[in-house]
Write a structure and sequence with these properties.
This protein has 277 residues and is mainly α. It contains nine helices and no strands.
Length: 277
């Protein structure tokens, strides 16, 4: 049976999206280029087959599908394997199949922790198990690069004959080349800047996810403490010394901390049934 894990912001590894993708691609020999591609569920199915051989019907997995109803089929296979191995994680299928980064990244973070708790180091032929299928878009862009080679030689036909009749103006022929070189250099700089912006945006999003996780964890424990406080207040006259000691702990402060006015205290958070801690 599987070892269950419960991921919170305090227990989840702080790995970047690039690290997580590299881990997935290395483990099951795929070529995923984006976290969003994991929305098909196929990778998680193969991970389960790797961790618990025989827990997944590999023939039912649609590895290269782009259809949402086939994503749902893959997640049904995953859920069946979870049930078989007594994994009590609730899979947010409706959100994952939409292909949004945040939902898929959060689930991948949990699965990485689940994998680490259950993997015992056995060898696994991922490509062989899926019949040699290549999975992920990372290997597909190679075709356009190969097609671009003949185009690079096409401009060589026209520049040579045109400058020949006008021998007195060699500098004029050199100017377009300089301009082209400058444009190429600017294009390279712009591409680098664009990549830096994308990386920074990804870092900001990951930090936002971390903050949101911390806020959820904070609200969860605040709600528990508030319940304890209300229970103590209701039994203050009959609870004896124990209730008094609990109240002292609840109201204990530190240097530099001021108790807020009642008007400034936010209402206790509503408990969400699907959140796991």
């Amino acid at each position: 049976m599987a070892v269950n894990v419960y991921a919170t912001s305090g227990t989840t590894e702080n790995l970047s999206r690039h690290d997580m993708l590299a881990w997935v691609n290395d483990c099951i020999q795929t070529k995923f280029a984006k976290i969003e591609e994991l929305c098909s569920g196929a990778a998680y199915c193969q991970f389960m087959d790797m961790l618990f051989p025989g827990s997944v019907q590999v023939k039912k997995i649609k590895f290269n599908t782009k259809l949402e109803h086939e994503y749902l089929t893959n997640f049904k296979v995953l859920q069946a394997s979870f049930k078989k191995m007594n994994v009590d994680k609730i899979v947010p299928v409706d959100r994952l199949v939409k292909g949004r980064f945040q939902d898929n990244f959060e689930f991948l973070q949990w699965f990485k922790k689940f994998f680490d708790a259950n993997y015992d180091g056995q060898d696994y032929d991922a490509i062989g198990m899926r019949g040699g299928e290549e999975v992920g878009s990372g290997g597909k862009p190679a075709r356009p690069n190969g097609m671009a080679k003949p185009m690079s030689g096409m401009p060589k036909r026209s520049p040579a004959p045109r400058p020949a009749p006008v021998a007195s103006r060699p500098a004029a022929a050199a100017r377009p080349a300089m301009g082209g070189g400058a444009r190429a250099a600017n294009g390279g700089v712009n591409m680098q800047a664009k990549m830096q912006i994308e990386d920074l945006n990804a870092q900001v999003l990951e930090m936002k996810l971390t903050v949101e996780g911390l806020e959820k964890e904070r609200d969860f424990y605040f709600g528990k403490l508030r319940d304890v406080e209300v229970m103590c207040q209701e039994n203050e006259s009959t609870g004896g010394d124990l209730v008094g000691k609990v109240m002292d702990i609840l109201y204990q402060t530190e240097d530099g901390f001021a108790v807020p006015d009642e008007e400034d205290v936010p209402p206790p958070p509503e408990e969400e049934g699907e959140e796991e801690y």
